Design the sequence.
């Protein structure tokens, strides 16, 4: 699953800026930040990103060009179940470190995931946001973009099936409540106790009230 990060606090924005202060690597002309990865992990991540972007470039050059135009860079971060998300404040695709390091992650999965998130960036550049009333339609556009790419890639049968399953998700999956459920599960994946999850959401609701 992937989604757009909803506008956060100044503290969270500062957190992302601090993570991106480190000198990035560069792939295909884009900066790649890997602030929490070890040297060995960085080598694996860079190879997979390079190969995935190369696959996209060879089989779908128009989508590849849109990725480069729509994202200022790639931030590799996250040890939970979320594949990726788009950060509209920093205009970067955040891709899960766990996803990129997983033995069963394929190059078509990398290419289609980047395509999905870059499509969010493209829509933002057109003035199309991520407000709840249009969120399901926005996700449908991004999923279809990833599906069209996957259909052009060799060995992408699993990714094609995954995209088609995502197209059947109910609209309330992407509602505010649905994203809250998704984020709560991400915290559980990281081992957070239920009391801490409840406290986190209580504080978020109080701040946004």
Sequence:
């Amino acid at each position: 699953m992937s989604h757009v990060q909803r506008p956060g606090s100044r503290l969270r924005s500062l957190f992302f800026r601090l993570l991106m202060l480190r000198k990035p690597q560069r792939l295909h002309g884009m900066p790649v930040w890997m602030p929490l990865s070890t040297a060995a992990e960085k080598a694996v991540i860079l190879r997979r990103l390079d190969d995935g972007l190369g696959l996209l470039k060879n089989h779908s050059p128009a989508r590849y060009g849109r990725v480069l135009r729509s994202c200022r860079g790639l931030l590799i971060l996250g040890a939970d179940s979320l594949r990726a998300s788009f950060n509209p404040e920093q205009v970067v695709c955040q891709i899960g470190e766990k996803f990129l390091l997983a033995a069963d992650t394929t190059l078509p999965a990398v290419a289609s995931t980047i395509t999905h998130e870059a499509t969010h960036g493209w829509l933002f550049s057109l003035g199309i946001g991520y407000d709840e009333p249009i969120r399901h339609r926005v996700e449908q556009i991004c999923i279809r973009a990833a599906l069209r790419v996957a259909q052009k890639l060799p060995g992408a049968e699993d990714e094609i099936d995954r995209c088609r399953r995502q197209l059947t998700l109910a609209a309330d999956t992407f509602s505010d409540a649905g994203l809250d459920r998704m984020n709560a599960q991400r915290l559980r994946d990281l081992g957070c106790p239920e009391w801490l999850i409840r406290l986190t959401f209580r504080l978020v609701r109080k701040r946004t009230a």
